[in-house]
Every structure is written in structure tokens, then in C-alpha cells.
Amino acid sequence: MNFDRDGRRRMATVDLSDHRAQLENVQRRLLLKGALSLGALTLLSGCNLQDGDAVDKVLWAMSRWNDRVQAWLFSRSRLAPTYAASQITQPFPFNAFYPEYDAPDLDGSTFRLEVSGKVADKRSWSLDDLRGLPQSGQITRHICIEGWSAIGDWRGVAFRTFLERIGADTTARYVGFKCADKYYSSLDMATALHPQTLLSLDFGDEPLPDKYGYPLKLRVPTKLGFKNPKHIAAIFVTDDYPGGYWEDQGYNWFSGS
Ligand SMILES: Nc1nc2c(c(=O)[nH]1)N[C@H]1C(S)=C(S)[C@@H](COP(=O)(O)O)O[C@H]1N2
Ligand SMILES: [Mo]
Q1: Distances from the Cα of 146 to the Cαs of 38, 96, 218, in angstroms?
Q2: Which candidate, 38, 165, 214, 237, has a CA 20 to 30 Å from the CA of 21?
Q3: Which atom of ligand 1 is found nearest the CA of 92?
Q4: What is the domain range of residue 36?
């Protein structure tokens, strides 16, 4: 805007046609910038993102890109730290998308773990079948995205051993988990095969208590707590991205710890 000597406004007579493309470009960039900071704000304030929203699309694309970079950086041989028995957190915290008194109370005698997808042997497994496989244990730190961590003692079957027994196609991309409480999650195959990924039946010397995932929990010390499904009812091997309960609400899927 220009002003004449008396302070009155005078319209600029610049021909904008030369600049139109450039202006549109700037406008687009500002729009994107606005969308990103709005997205960041939405994340910080914990609001739900709307379906089909442009902000949502940008953020999901970023998160998927982030997954690829993390998978690439992830070392198959890197081990999570282990701890002494004296360092175990007492009492170990409970967490789920419901209060502790709603934890499923399952009957171990009739329990069968279902297996499906890209595997050679789809027969289901009883708890005795699983206890018949070689057992091992770990004392590791569970880290919850909500801001707490605790050291626990999980024992059971190396998940790699289980995948070998069912003849899993280990060139498939994902292993998915369906839980008795409607929770679900999934892992990249490299993490499923990681030496510390454990199909856990026991917490210390005892079968997993209800609140910690009876009768089966996948213990993944290289991942955040929400990628450690409790009360596992079914396992499937697939190339189709299975997502997860929190993953589908925007938690980053890879979530290494
Ligand atoms: N089936 C099931 N598994 C689950 C959850 C859940 O709500 N249901 N919550 C996850 C989250 S966010 C955390 S932190 C851990 C908590 O495990 P804990 O109760 O043994 O501490 O379980 C994970 N696995
Ligand atoms: Mo968590």
C-alpha cells in the first residue's frame, strides 16, 4: 500500500500477473506450514484428529515415513539391557485401556492359542503344548508411553522358537496379535525374531497373573509397553499392515524403546 502526501491511500498499480504463480506458491507453502503447526498443536493438546483431514494425512504420512527410518536404523542384534532380580519393581504396575478389575479372567484349561496366515502349521496350541517348548526368561525394563517404567521378570518361549515351530514365513512383513480383551497390535518380522522377544507364560515363578496378561503375553523389551500385547488369543503372519489398538489412534507404529 502506498500513501500520498496528504496521507490518503493510493492503490499500487503493479501488474500482478507476473507474480501470480509465485504468490500461489507462497500461499501453498504457508498453508502447509499452518497445517503442520496445527497438527503439532493437536498432538500436544491430545485432541482427536478428524478423519480425512489434511492435517491428519500429513501426520500419518510423516509417521509412516518415521516407521521406515526406524526399521532401517533398528539393529537386529542390539539387546535391551537386563537387570538383577533385586532390581525388579515391586509391585509391578498394571496398565490397560480399562481399570484393573476389568482384566479378563480366562480359563487356562480350555485355552487355545489360534495361529493363522503365512504359516505351515495352523493347529492351535494349549498351554501345556506351549510349556512343552524350551523355556527361558529375562529381567528387563518395560517402558510405557504414559511416562512410567518398571523392571519385571518374564519367562516363557523364545518367540523365534515358536515361529519356527509353526513354520512361519519369516520373509513376511508382520506378525499380528489379537487379544481376549479386544486389544490388538503387530510387530515387524525383524522384531518378532529378535532374541529377546518372548512369548511369556510366567511372571517370576508364577503363571502370569490376570492383570499382567494371563495366560499369554508377548514381552518385547525393544519396544514401548503398548507393543507388548497381553491376553493373546490369536497370532497371524501377514504382509498386510495390521496396525494396533493405539497405533490406529496415532501412536507411532514402530515405537522402539
Ligand atoms: N491385551 C492388552 N494388552 C496390553 C494393553 C491392553 O490394554 N490390553 N495395554 C498395553 C500397555 S499401554 C501397557 S503399558 C502394558 C501394561 O502391561 P502391565 O499391565 O503388565 O504393566 O500392556 C500393554 N498390552
Ligand atoms: Mo503403555
Answers
A1: 23, 11, 19
A2: 38
A3: 21
A4: 1-257
